[in-house]
Amino acid sequence: MTLIHEFIHAELLNRCIQLGLIHQSHILGHIAFESSPNITTGNNLNDAMHNIYDDFLSEIIDSVFKYATNNNIEGVTEEYCTKLVLGAHQNSNSFQALTDEQKNEYSTITVNEEQGNEESNGTNCN
Q1: 29 lies in which domain range?
Q2: pTM, 2 dp
Q3: 3-class DSSP state for residue 110?
Q4: Do residues 86 and 98 make contact, with C-beta atoms less than 8 angstroms apart?
Q5: pLDDT greater than 70 at residue 77
Q6: Complete DSSP assignment for 53-75
Q7: Domain contains 7
Q8: For 12-46, b where at least 16 C-beta lie within 10 A, e where not — what string?
Q9: Does residue 122 form part of some domain?
């Protein structure tokens, strides 16, 4: 799971650079970290890398919804997929802008799906 997560970061960054979509904060985060690798510049780079998801949330949500639809996962709506995706991207500005109640709800949905427990709509993957 961690490896896939990190590959997604690399792929998104690569596509953003190729398409000229990368924000100055992402570039500055990389430059600052490369010039002076420390906790502060590392945290700033981490924030910039996770905030890139904000630029692609609708595409990610749409992909998750299509996956659920194509795999006949019952009880999954676009609203549910939005909550799942935002709950899985807790370092993004979009998640941070939610109310505490929403953060809790969305995080719970994400944990349920990750663990494949009774409250999940999908099945546990091994």
Answers
A1: 2-52
A2: 0.70
A3: helix
A4: yes
A5: yes
A6: GGGGHHHHHHHHHHHHHHTT-TT
A7: yes
A8: bbeebeeeeebeeebeebbebbeeeeeeebeebbe
A9: no
